[in-house]
## 1
Amino acid sequence: MTRFPEIKDRLGLGLGMDMPWGKVIGFQNEGDSGRPSPRVEKFLQSHSQDFSYFFFSFQPRNRNQLDLAEYQPAYESLLSHIPKSWNVALHQTTCNLGSAEPYGREQVIDFTNQLINTFQLRWVNEDLGIWSLRGKSLPYPLPPFLNAAGLAACIDNVAFYQERLHAPLLVEFPGFTDGSNFYIGKAHAYDYFRAVVEETNSPCTLDTGHLLSYQWLLGKRGEEIYSELERLPLSSCFEIHLSGCQVVNDRFIDFHHGIIMDEQITMLEKLLARCPNVKAVTFEDPKFDEHGVLIEKSLKNFLRLKEIVARWKA
Amino acid sequence: MEGLNLSDTLFRLLYDRAYREKFVAEGEFSDFATIDRKELNRFGEAIERNTFTGPLLAGKSLEECFPQTMKILEEADPEFRRDFLLSEFFDSYSDLNHSGKFLSLEEAFYKFAVGAVTSLQAVALHEFLTAHLQILAVHANPAFRLNADLTQPLRNGYISIQRLGNQITLYACVTNKFISGPIDESVAEVLKKYFVRPAAEIRPEHKDLVEGLRELGFVPLSKT
């Protein structure tokens, strides 16, 4: 049986934020402690009525060994700026679910479980990607090896984490862009992803930009870019992501710049109509100014997104 | 691709420029045939560039840490960057803080540099220890391996005392503070005698020096 997060009702629109350290949108160091940047604090204060749940992405703070004590004050500070009633989740970046080589995972599991238990995280999400090779981080996560050996490795990895994490792991369909738009292997990524999700009984996340980027890479344009959705594990989808994407010089780039494309909105509508168990739609990495106000260019489709999700939730 | 598994092949395509160029020119590696070669090149070049110029987490870039060493290596072999990525030292490095103890990128590069050009020893050692101790000053629990041959633990930090030619140089971090500079024989002796090792009582003729070092932030292991 699929290990869905224990959430009955549709959550509506959520907010997902990458929180790197030392950036204007992220955490700032304060001695041994830390807190969200003033810009993030203002945004969370002024936009809490727009959202109904929250996830933050893990980013390493420094070159120390993983230790909850280094992160806890900053995470507590971050979560103090959102309503207490919200569900909170974690976007992991260290599970390396697409890796086909042996690698140490115990520390990641221990640390993630500490976060889950400390902050009552309802689920953990990570892209099914290759985030590091031989202990070296890659500039962008690569899609997994799209062949039989790669599939077997992904299934093993996901099952390993699924068994050990104290909250359900949502496996996210990987991105096929961001300067890494090449892939290895001949399997269709939708079939491949469905196999991983079904074999491990995992809930999943479908990111509109990631799906579009894959079809774009296959040369699909126009209406065709929304084709083949039935090949995805639609009934296992718990969450849908939308982050700012753009086509530049005929390359589909998952910029995370806060400006959602019309095509992502269309993809969202198609997914909502086809995914019977989806509970959460996340606006990922909004961009806002020093007053915490969303950038002008992002407003049009953010308002559409809110409208569509409100209608779906009702 | 014979004998190589998926990860090894991908690693070589990304980190080994010559291997990548051969693949781009003529490669038909089964499943790897689907790779967009232009994008592969872009990705591989980004890795090489980031390795040298990308700021390390809470630190400087490799080029900022080793300006003189880089200059000398460049003169000796303009392709040294490629060779570093293929070296055993780079292979022993990891930037992940959850994967166990590996070499830091700075130490991997230092070891590569002195292996590549012997006359670099003094320059590379100075630049490495400066970087290493600066990083240790702000990392109480580093995920990377400490160089036990070159650095020694103090009660509240780390120290390295190096004799380069006629000069003795101190590199240290104590309570989040980096301290470096030439020292004379007596200071080196006092540091080793009372701060690195727990000695018997401090001798009267050393008391002033010990106090001076204590004011700088060093905590003696010896009885005072």
## 2
Amino acid sequence: MNTLNLNDSAPRLDRLQIAAVVGLMCVSVAFVYSATHGIPWMASNWLRQMVWFAIGLTAAVGTCLINYHTLIRWAVVAYWVSILALVAVLIPGIGSMQGWGARRWIDLGPFSLQPSEFAKLGFILALANFLSRPTDELRLGINFWKPIGMLLLPFLLIMKEPDLGSALVLLPTGFAMMYVAGTPRKYLLRLLGLGGIVTALFIVDVLFVTNEKWRVPLHSYQRDRLLVYFGRDYTDFAPPNATREDLQRLRRKQMDDSLNVRQALISVGSGGLTGKGWGQGTQKSLGFLPRSVAHNDFIFSVIAEEKGFVGSVTVVTLYAVVLFTGLRIAGQARDRLGKVLAVGVVTLLFSHVFINIGMNIRLMPVTGVPLPLLSYGGSSVLGSLIAMGLLQNVHLNRKGY
Amino acid sequence: MLIFDQLKKNDTQLQLLAVVMFSGLAILLAGLWWIQIVRARDYQTSSETQSSRTVRLPAVRGKILDRNGVVLAENRANFNISVYLEDLSKSFKEEYQRVRPTNTVTIQPSFWKRWLGIKPTVVPRRLKAAESLPYEWQARFSVLDKVTRQLGSGLQIPNLTLDTNAFVRHFTNRLALPFPIVKGASIANVACFQESLAGNIAADLEIQSTRVYPYSNTAAHVLGYLKRDDNRSAFGEDALFNYRLPDYRGVVGIEGGLDTNLCGRAGTRSVVVNNRGYRQSESITTPAEAGHNVVLTLDVKIQREAEAALRRHASGHFGAVVVMEVETGDILALASAPASNPNYAITGFPGYPGGEYQSWTNAQAGLQKNRATFELYQPGSTFKTIIALAALENGLNPNEKVRVEPNPAEPNKGAIFVGREKIRDTASPGDYDLRRAIVKSSNSYFVDVGIRPGVFTRVVDLVERLHLDDLNGLPLRQESRGYFPTAERRRSSWGAGHIAHISIGQGEMNVTPMHMAVLTSALANGGKVLWPRLVSRLESQDPAVVVPPTVFPAGRVRDRLGVSQRSLQILREAMKEETEDNEGTGRHARVPGLRICGKTGTAERMERGQTRNTTWFISFAPYEAPARYAVVVMVEDGASGGASCAPVARDIYKKLFNLDQPAGSRTALTATR
């Protein structure tokens, strides 16, 4: 179109988004430092987080250098490599528990990687590649079921780890991509209806079915988290011959299980309007908010406690900037591939943010979903920054360039 | 919004997505607003509640001093050597790792590490909470045991052992407070600890104050006693505490009556605890305000003499003594026998639950009753002083002779018939004028005079002016009103018989020895009815405080008798004769070199079918104006007022006027005050 390239003075990178991402990274380092206070600096988490940011930024720049049309040729490879990693992580000896009771990590010596973080990207690339075909082809039934299959494969593998949260974020991501790509409305409505029915049955089963035979095979801690979230009493699920001690034990267990949720809420709430001040949060320094989760899944609680409502709004605003600039990038994308890719990345990001912050304020059940770019963790940081690189890539190669 | 505008207008999919995300973020913000703004206070409260413990710090109780500054009640430091459990929590963990069962699990390294030749690691299996609990306790016991032994050998206390039950209780209920290992350490222990152990061991000195009464039984009823009451709360202090340190509440006596002044105001220490309940830091949020010292009007020398004299002359009897300055109303001694040692209420009674504790709790033994201010007695013949005053005011000629007829049943004693009732006399029959009637304490004379028209109205008036049926306003929590027939009572079925009995201080009336002291002072000081004063001032414990002490004025006149000085002088004269005349019933009170005015009394009362005596001696001295001291002695079941009570008063007068000293150094006690 613009053969004269009149827009040469226009920014080639989306600077607003980059500013927001850098802002989130600064917040991350500051509050990982605050949450893991007292560890010698060589071994400190904030330093490691900075190293990961450096690696992640390099990877993001690398992602930007190659046109996404070239990159997408490797989408299928990336998808299957990540599927392979997801299978490998389930094998004892390769996958490691890291003391958490779920096989989510591949131990690489000085650090360990979480394949599910990369599988999310592999899935987005592969699905974008598949959906970028002409709209007419998407009307075929087979081309509706294939993406569903592409989604279910990593979904089930991640569920198996188990990592319910990471698996669940794939659903809205895949759905949004299919919707934007132009999958016919009737298919999507059917999918939505089916999903709704399955979810409803699942929740009813977990919350109200006390008979062992009819229960969904969930890990007990997953069931417990859901029960805690919906405020059900453990004692309702006690066998009829339970003794008083058994009931007492169940009640104590419920208190223990709901501890994180309760303490996260107290952290957030006690922050008030302006917070207790950076490094002054008492909830984690006194050990009420467990130290093991304060710097990763519950980093938002730490920020909210120390910086109050003002801090929370700042964080949400930074995410809003990243998300809406992302949608703008999707709108300005050169082609459907770029648009679907951008939408996938933005939806993935949004799902993480909503689930994680929601879990900190008891809007969502507790699942191990990190807060992108804020939570401590190499894989999450690396994955998120590569995703940002993809967005910028779509932007760099937008219409007119 | 800028970004929205840039979305293509026809791109409905992206617009819908934007709306969904916008609403999602809005929901998050609404949730955050609800939690961080609307309900912030609730969460701040629960954050504080779970991480802070408040400790009530009792204030230092004020001392009780006598008029010369002699300490009657004070606080002695009581040292505990206590360990801070948070300092030991690391040792608990290490010891737990040592004592826990050693079954292990092997962790296989990832395949590439095995390829590099890294061996599997063996780590102890993680125990379930129920499994690990006994080992955790075992670890704590063994750590504490070690500290205890270390302390025991360092302080040379050979048999120092850990009280495991106390430790379990402390650990579960009072974890944030230090755990006392050595309770009530001696000064030698403390010195030894400070010299060699402090700083090297996770223990520290804790100081608690304990109430001590250095004179033990002396003035026990005035002082009262304390009762352990950690849950007390005074006006103006915080009410809710997680922990309360030992504290005491005054029950009776000055400790009880002036408890709010003595106890001061408790402070608050706030302890920040972590999620396990171990102390992290602490601060005093409200410092305790020490209580006030109470300075009494008592003179401990006189008090001790009064108690000793009671023991000497009425050993084994219940009794009471009140010594009062007739011009100021100051109580110099207020004794009640028997008395219990108030220290026992703090330290425990020796021989508990038998011994003194048994008689202390037994109402019949009456150890707790203050007989000088609380127990009611009939005044007997001592009340004839008032009858005499009333009669004189009514125009009685003191020289008028009244003939007393002999008692038909006992011809050498007199008697008088009122209606059909015979009132016996201990004095012989014959002619009596007022002086002789007082000296020999003739019942017949006073009945004869008392039932004369107009006399009783004046008696009622005098009783009202003396406030015998009222309280004396002493802060002892053991005080009674006397009883005198009310005007209403006097209207119905009232006759000469009743008046006759009251004329000899019996029948329907009751007083306490304190009332009699006020009465006696009024006779001595020319008719002023004073408020007795037991507390002279309340002063701050801190000598640096410039706030002036609260001083209770001396010599507050409550009322006046309203009788002529002539009548008083006639009565005083007769009362002097009572001790100086060889026929006088009060002759045993005589002290060489001092002229004492007195009146004996013996009231008979029926108790469980037995006739029992209340014997009295009321007196003041010197006879020459100005009179200075009133001494009232009451002994239950004494032989007679003259035999049982007068010698007690005599000993007290000797002490008051320094008359047992060699002649050269004799000076009146209060001359220097």
